[in-house]
Amino acid sequence: MTAPLAINKVTKTIDDFQLHINNLHIEEGTITAIIGANGAGKSTLFKMIMNLVKQESGSIQVYGESVNAQEDSWKQHIAYQAQTLHGYDAFTGKMLGTLMSDIYPNWDEALYRSLSQKLDVPLNKRVKKLSPGVKTKLNIALTLAKNTPFLLLDEPTAAMDIPSRTYFLDTLLQVTEERNKTVVFASHQADDIKKLADYLVFLQDGKASELFEKDTFTSSYRQFWLKDEPETSIPGEIQRTYKKVILSNDPDATLDYITHNNLEVMDEQVPELEDIIPLLLTKGE
Ligand SMILES: Nc1ncnc2c1ncn2[C@@H]1O[C@H](COP(=O)(O)OP(=O)(O)OP(=O)(O)O)[C@@H](O)[C@H]1O
């Protein structure tokens, strides 16, 4: 089966910003979070995948088809949710549903109606009259109802209230599992990433990391609660809190040092994803 997304050696320069994606292959039926701080290049990457922005070099394929080719039937297999809903101000949600049902052969009207109802989106109001948060929710209902095998979501829960966010995340997980969908979403919300993602990719200063399996990634870090504050920096140490709690990205090296220096460990734990993500989002870390 052809991979939903295959990116090889892609580069893009915008003024003094450079984006490099060496190798990113997304397997069918997986959920991948693209994690990066503001300005890290997440939206630019998504726009390149949708051929809205052209890369300078390298290749991007969706289900084996180059996104830069003239033939663009691959677009029917992917639902892209941009950060904002542009160009639809004069339409109502109902009109947009009718429009999308003509374009997307598997349009799921029942899902569109139930999502809109649960998320409190009035389908009879014109888009320009909706608040930013309600526009985001309409955008989400439209994206999921396209019922494509591949979903590309750019910060889907930004500006959403908590009940809607919870409902959306649960529905996305359910739909993804029941219909074996592939999801790639951009986020810097640790909660969303923890709940949704199977795999993680970090974008830092325009460079994409390799693809990490989420649990393998968190278990490569360790938090050590020491009895006394160490005098010097410890091998593997990337953060020290309350003077005695050491977060390490090299637990073996840290433990080796602790043992050789007779430091007493009060407790040792695999950290939560939300403890690690902020450190990785900091520029130049
Ligand atoms: N249309 C544009 N004109 C000029 N610079 C741009 C444009 N679009 C993006 N950039 C620059 O490209 C870089 C990456 O921006 P991008 O929007 O892809 O980041 P992002 O990770 O999606 O950020 P955010 O989390 O704030 O949405 C930034 O330095 C930004 O200033």
Automatic annotation (TrEMBL):
<dbReference type="InterPro" id="IPR051782">
    <property type="entry name" value="ABC_Transporter_VariousFunc"/>
</dbReference>
<feature type="domain" description="ABC transporter">
    <location>
        <begin position="2"/>
        <end position="230"/>
    </location>
</feature>
<dbReference type="Pfam" id="PF00005">
    <property type="entry name" value="ABC_tran"/>
</dbReference>
<keyword id="KW-0547">Nucleotide-binding</keyword>
<keyword id="KW-0067">ATP-binding</keyword>
<dbReference type="InterPro" id="IPR003439">
    <property type="entry name" value="ABC_transporter-like_ATP-bd"/>
</dbReference>
<dbReference type="InterPro" id="IPR027417">
    <property type="entry name" value="P-loop_NTPase"/>
</dbReference>
<dbReference type="GO" id="GO:0005524">
    <property type="term" value="F:ATP binding"/>
</dbReference>
<protein>
    <submittedName>
        <fullName>ABC transporter ATP-binding protein</fullName>
    </submittedName>
</protein>
<dbReference type="InterPro" id="IPR003593">
    <property type="entry name" value="AAA+_ATPase"/>
</dbReference>
<keyword id="KW-0813">Transport</keyword>
<dbReference type="GO" id="GO:0016887">
    <property type="term" value="F:ATP hydrolysis activity"/>
</dbReference>
